[in-house]
Amino acid sequence: MRDLDNKASEAKDKKAAIGPDVELDAYSVEPPAHETIQDLKSLPEEDKERMLLAGIDTEESERSGTYIQKDSSSIYAFSHEEGLEVIPIREALEKLDWVKEYYWKLASVDQDKYTARAHLDLHDGYVIRALPGSKISFPVQACLYLEREGSTQNVHNIIIAEEDSELHVITGCATAAHVTEGLHIGISEFFVKKNAKLSFTMIHHWADNMIVRPRSVAKVEEGGLFLSNYVSMKPIKSIQSYPTTYLDGKGAVARFYSLLVGSPGSELDIGGRVYLRGKDTRAEIISRAITNGGNIIARGDLIGEKPGVKGHLECHGLILKGGFMHAIPELTGTVDGVEMSHEAAVGKIAQEEIYYLMSRGLTEEEATATIVRGFLNVDIPGLPPKLKSEIDRAVELSQQEFM
Amino acid sequence: MLLIEDLKVKLGKREILRHIDLEIRPGETHILFGPNGSGKTSLLMTIMGYPQYKVVSGKITFKGEDITHMSINERAELGIGMSYQRPPSIQGLKTRQLIDICCNNGGDTEALAEELNFSEFLGRDINVGFSGGEIKKSELLQLMAQDPDLYLFDEPESGVDLENISLIGNTINHLLRKNLHSTADKSKKEVVKERPKMGLIITHTGFILDYVTADRGQVLYNGVLACRSNPSAIFRQIKDEGYGECVRCAI
User: Which of A22, A234, B215, B219 has minimal CB crowding within 10 Å?
Assistant: First the structure.
């Protein structure tokens, strides 16, 4: 820990490699602490509604566990299923020695000032773990909720799918309705062990002036599958995220899907990078972005380091009402016999498609909305229907706002 | 009734249809012949209301309403439906959703798809990776769901294998209510008289004539309707002599 402290201190002013620089001192409001609750029913209605928009079901129907954090405190952390652990990270670091074997083991604390801050001023976060062989029946939900105007939330999450386990996590990030600005820094480290399957679906529902700096790294062992979905439909001031995945074990697979909408004033810089290091590893990065006047950078990077690995990158962007769209797909092969491809397109909705649907009776507006919905409707193999419908709902809810 | 009077249409700067007069009465189905590039598809697109086909002069009336400048969806609502030769693919829009749209949520999508042996395609993105024949089936399914009064078919049999051609042909005949029979209180003549459906079918191969009882044939040549006659007679003549004879008529 001493070593981490030193490294973090040295990096506390280090600018990030990409993305607009954020003046951290501008977010000096101390986030308040909150009492823990025993029952989600006691949450205020307003909070429940906001959480629902980010895919968090406070009724906990069809959820195997729930973690809820408000500002700097975890207020609710429960597992409802054997073989599943849901623990606030500060508590875990204090009481469970094994957690230290995972803390900052993939992400670097001195990567930039955001990682440094998340260590020096940690406001909790979660450890979610599926024990060896446990197939967790329903998704586990985690909500990071910001209530204090102008404050920061620095969280660190560790997600572990032990050997032969199966775990589906949905994380909803949201702000209270009255909040207009704030800063969220989120470190996530994913460990997908031998033959495990982990899906991680993140839905963002922030305030217009939020700044978000996630830093995520995943490691997938032999035969493991890591599925990562990211949905951001709401206006946001700036988000910059470029998660890295290491496919270390033979036959490991990673799939990334992002659905993005950039509204006027929003800046989204979202990417995904996968190192295909093990034999027969496969990766797919798919992004669908729409801008109505916001700026979107969609990045993707595949690095093939073993013969026989396969990867595909797809960045599709639509400019609907002005804005800026920059697709940056990158492929790097370091040996013979890698097989990687990319497909990038930036354009508008084809008029021909609108007319086609109009000839089936839809108005021009209905036809456009239907095409946009289709554009954002990506088939995600291996995702439980329940989670797919959560994604569909998040897309649906934001439709009226950006059409 | 569809009534087209002295229609002149431009696509960009090019005049593509001239002096078009066409009348399709309720219950009638017309076949539209013509060589490649003669303007057949343009005529269908103009009737459907595609705005790039600019009506310079003349008038289109449907069910007594002047539709010359109506939007595509208004025409669809009024009862015009079109089966496209090469419809666009739409990523993420499932065929099932589109059929539901065509039904206006009033029909039974599953049952309709069953009729055309097309159920397994309902979960696929519309037209994405469909073969020529699959596209035709999907178009036909959409029209079945829409159930318009005027059916516009742009080469409904092209790219369809022999096994499916009779299914498509018979379905079209059925949609156009060409297979009506007499009832206890009405003679066949009376039943046919009350038949409201109209059709305008483009064909190159003429296969469709084996299944659909058409009332008239029209030949479009170089943007002008050159000939009106019995469809089978026209088809035979084109087969024997090509469109050469039509040129003489068009002049």
Answer: B215
